[in-house]
């Protein structure tokens, strides 16, 4: 009985800490605490292209996993752009946004407009 009481106290303390730090936890996981939204859509940060006017800009989503495609942004896209520049002298701006220029560079070098992990490995091998 005593063990159950101690366990209950521990659970209540952890629950209180999570409740007290909920905004900080939401920020750490990329959920905006002010909008009250939940689910996977709230985890994706939406931004527009920095170089296009708002009327022609794409909405970019932070893509942390493959496949990468037009409309993605992030470190994986930046790595892709650097690899394309080094392997194929694609002359892409290394901004981390997968837009029409990145797509065109892929297609011009024999890849589809969507990059799978295996494609990224081929591009990396072409750098060597």
Uncertain runs with pLDDT below 50, 5 residues or more? 35-45
Rg measurement, Å: 21 Å
Please tally the helical runs, counting DSSP H or I stretches of 4 or more residues: 5
Stated plainly, the CATH topology of the largest domain is called: Muramoyl-pentapeptide Carboxypeptidase, domain 1
Strand line-up of the largest beta sheet: 1-2-3
CATH level-two architecture of the largest domain: Orthogonal Bundle
Q: Any idea of the CATH class of the largest domain?
A: Mainly Alpha
Structural class: mainly alpha
Strand content: 5-15%
How do the helices and strands follow one another from N- to C-terminus? Answer: HHEEEHHH
Kindly state the percentage of residues in helix.
40-55%
Mean pLDDT: 79
Largest sheet: 3 strands, mixed
Counted up, domains total 2
How far apart are the termini?
65 Å
Count of distinct strands: 3
Shape: elongated
CATH superfamily of the largest domain: PGBD-like superfamily/PGBD
